[in-house]
Amino acid sequence: MHGTTIERHEAVIIGAGQSGLAAAYYLAKRGIDFVVLEANDRVGDNWRSRYDSLLLYSPARDDALPGMRSPLPRYTFPTGRQMADYLESYAAQLRLPVLTGVAVDSLRPASGPGDGYVISAGDRRFGAAHVVIGSGFFRQPHVPDFGADLDPGIRQFHSSDYREPSQLADGPVLVVGLSHSGADLALEAAHGGHRTILSGKFHGQLPFSVDSRAGRIAWPIMKFVASNLLTLRTPIGRKIAPQIRKGGAPLLRVRRPDLLKAGVELIEARTVGVRDGKPILADGQVIDVANVLWCTGFRPDYSWIQPPILDGDGWPEQERGVVTSAPGLYFLGLPFQYGFTSMLVAGAGRDAAYVVDRIAARPPRSHAG
Known about the structure:
About 40% of the residues are buried. With about 375 residues, the chain is of the alpha/beta class. The protein has helices spanning about 20-30, 45-50, 80-95, 180-190, 215-230, 235-245, 255-260, 345-360, and strands at about 5-15, 35-40, 100, 105-110, 115-120, 125-135, 140, 155-160, 175, 195-200, 265, 270-275, 280, 290-295, 300, 330. Strands 1, 2, 3, 4, 5, 6 and 16 form a seven-stranded mixed β-sheet that branches. A five-stranded parallel β-sheet has the order 8-14-9-10-11. Strands 7-15 form a two-stranded antiparallel sheet. It has two domains: about 5-140 and about 300-360, FAD/NAD(P)-binding domain (3-Layer(bba) Sandwich); about 140-205 and about 250-295, FAD/NAD(P)-binding domain, CATH 3.50.50. Strand 9, helix 4 and strand 10 (about 195-200) form a beta-alpha-beta unit. Helix 1 (about 20-30) crosses helix 8 (about 345-360).
């Protein structure tokens, strides 16, 4: 490994999702030498890997990155695959230097003080004064340990592995987690003729669905609030940030009335274990089902980063994406990194512009070695 040639750049972006590509756009505009490393075979594959019925919660007019509009009608809600194709076209049309199929194994400081960082990816190494980590905070699907104790005859999927209703066995479905994906998949299962139980804490909802007429009228106001009031600069933003980071967002499209109308059984008691091979809830109910859909979120994985940059809760210590304890290291796409929109397409450009401004403000340094 020590004999491997280091490919040197002023900056390296890890991850070609919306955050990484937005940063690439601004670096290119400033003429800074950089490369984007993407683990998937195609740009946008993270979106292609989601369940087939996924729709974004913002209309196409707000689902574009700087420098290129969405090709969809302004008030269309893109599917995951349409978003993936947009990102792939964005990288191609703007001729951004993206290397696909390059999975990063480790990031470490270079040997000399002020020499930046070395990124290892298989048998390749990259050296850079600046590294932008835009690979996403939620990397590891989370399933409770007791999931392994379920009867083998019960089909179980994490939401990241679920694609369509044909994967489900005949019989009842337990959806664990009253999140956006939990509401989506519970509604889909119920419409498919399954008795459906949805277990999880309710975190509120909009008074109307985002894709209703009222939602279209109110969207500009919601966008303004999310972009300008729900930030770490405001008291209300600082108050709700911890809840959002834990996955406690209100329902936006599929809401309680929609679920109840479809016959979904809503139970606020959490799924806490297994008894005789069947899931058991916190209130003691044992649920006899043929399927379990785990909409229990993801966990971060920064074990590949060697500089000690995490706080006691496992979050990167950063200020608007800038890691002050590790000069030259930056994050993008973190939940509530600066505001509610930080992990959304709509907020990717603002956060990326801020980080790239910080990169451009620092004088060029010697490359890692």
